[in-house]
Structure formats: C-alpha cells, structure tokens
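Sequence in, structure out. First:
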Amino acid sequence: TFDELLMSNFLVVAVFARSLSLALIFFCAETSQPHHRPSHNGISEDTLIPIVKLSLVMMLFRTAVNLSSPFFSAYMLQEIRLDFSIYSYLIAIPLVTKLIYLTNWARLLDDNKKFEGLAIATLAIGIVPVLWSLGHSPTWLSLLQIISGVSWAGFDLISILLVQHMYPKSITQKLGLFMALGSLGSVIGGLLG
C-alpha cells in the first residue's frame, strides 16, 4: 500500500540522513581550524580538499533529505486527506519559521558553538520525517513544521559560517562550490524521490 511504501521510504531516508548527519558532524569537528598551507613563495594558499569533502557530504545529506520530499505532498493530500488550505498552511510554516529563526540562530552562536549548533540542526532534520508517522492532526503537523523550519534555519546559517570559518580569505569561491554541490544534491534527491 501507499502507506507502507511511504513509511519504508521514510525509514531508509531517515537512516541515510542520520548516517550522513553523523558523518557531517564528525567531519566538521575534524575541520575546526581554518585551512591554509604555505605556498612555495611563502604566501598562504588555501587547500581545496576540506571544502570538497564538506561539499560532497552536504550534497549527499541534501540528496537524502530531498529524496523524501515528493512523498510529503502525496502523503498529506492522499493518505491523510488534508484540506488543500491546511496543506498550503503546513507547507508555508517552515519557510516563515526559517525567516524568523535565522536571526535567533545567529544570536545563539559564537565561534565555539557552530559545531554543536550544526549537530543539533542535522539531528532534528533527520528526526522530523519519522515523527510525522506519530500523528496526523494539523496541530501536531504544525509543530513538526515549526521544528523543521527552526532546524533548517540553523543548518543553512551554520553551514555558511563553517565555510567562512574554514576559508576566511577566499570565502566567495569556496562558498560557491559548497552551495552549488548542495543544490545539486537537492535536485538529485527531488528527482529520485
């Protein structure tokens, strides 16, 4: 049935996302210092290996998360039989929450708390799809969507801050690579889902 297929896909995605979130946390703890290496003429030169690794892990994480995204619409409209206005409301909640909580995450973080913040955000993102199976009331789903918005706000902000921390002198190119691969992961996950 659709419900069994949905739950098995959520389980696979949740396990995959959880594994990638742990890998991301481990990688970020490993790369806690800015990366520069001296070049042959004595001027420091950034290494590309850490940003490529971080970008690839981020791409895989976003692929895993977006793999389940197409199922949410079908699940909410066909299986739970939500009214379209409630569905629209639920879809808007994480976007509005993300706008509100970006500034709150920025206030909570300092240089020493980026990694803890990323750990909390990635773990919450991985748990939310599983929590959808615990109830179908609009109130419960709204709460989960708020958690999702808060988590994604932290995840997106902290990810950018990590790249900035790792490469303070060449942020533009590194951030471009990081964001491009993250977007590619979102596209791949959405298409495969």
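Second:
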Amino acid sequence: IILLSLLLVFLVSATSMAKYEKGDYKVFSLGDTRETIEEKATYLVITGEIIKGNGDYFVTKIAGETFTGYFSYYQDQLYKMSFYSDGYNAMRYDTYLKDLMMDKIKPMFSGSYGEPVNDYGYPSFFSLKDGYTIFISRWRDGDKEIITGVSSSDFEYEGAIMIVDTALEKQKEKDEEEAKKAQAQQSASDF
C-alpha cells in the first residue's frame, strides 16, 4: 500500500509538472493571460530561475542585479511589465546606478533590438522628481516598446525597465476615456 501511494504521488507530481513543459515557460509574453503568467511564475520559482513571484510580481536577477518585476493587465491580458532595481542612495546615483543602466542594461537591449529609437542619455541627478521615471532609451519592435530609465522615491534611486504592448495599452486608454465620457453623460443626465 505504501509503495502504491508513493507511485500515485509520483504520477500526480509528474503529471502536474508536465503542463509546465508545454509552451515557453521561461519567458513572460505580452498578451498572456493572468492564469498563464501565474503558471509560468510558479514554474520559474520551482526551477529556481526566479527568486519568487506570482501573477502580480516577481523577483529576478538582470545583469547580476536584483530587479522586481510587476505585471499590468488589461482585459485579462498582460500589456506591461515594469522592472525596478534595488534602490541606491544619492552617492551611488552617478556611479553604480549609471554603470548598471548605461553599461549593462542598455547594451543588453541594443544587442537584441539595435540602436534605440530615442536615446536621451543618463539623466542629471537634479532633473529627477519623486514618483516619476526619467527615460534613458526607448526601442520599438512592432507593437512592443521597451523603455529604460531611472526612478526616484524618498531619496532612493532605482533603475527602471518597462516593456509595453502599445496596441493593448492604446486600447486600454481608449476604453477608459470612453468610460469617463459615459460616466460624465450619466452624471449630467442625473440632474
């Protein structure tokens, strides 16, 4: 009975892992459903390829540094991934963070997508505003846009990478605008 139980556990485990072998579970893809992203994140945590994660976020290493990635969905489809490095203090802004973004991250994307469509250079420390991302470079590949930049918040500075499905993002903005107009018309008719 114990042997039969162990065999059953092995078969169930092998069957549940088999579904993770289907498709490309090493890459989060724009347009994936939340369920698919959750499955991929679970698989990548199990295999140790990401540190932790679920359908909302994940933690991984990019260019040897820890980044936290966040997923944004519209109509149950992934339309944006935003990555933020660990935060650095002001003394490391023009040294360590600049090296990370300009000498490691930017060449990584340039190697895959060519020269950026827009290259703004590394932003001056004094141009930063809390809660905003200042762009460094931007690439386009069909409906995909990749943006690198630097963010600041509460005297901490972090590298930022955004990968966006521009077609789905435009549809989201259009639908939100139409919903606002409909709400305004409904509110006006209430009087």
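Remark: Residues 166-189 form the longest helix (24 residues).
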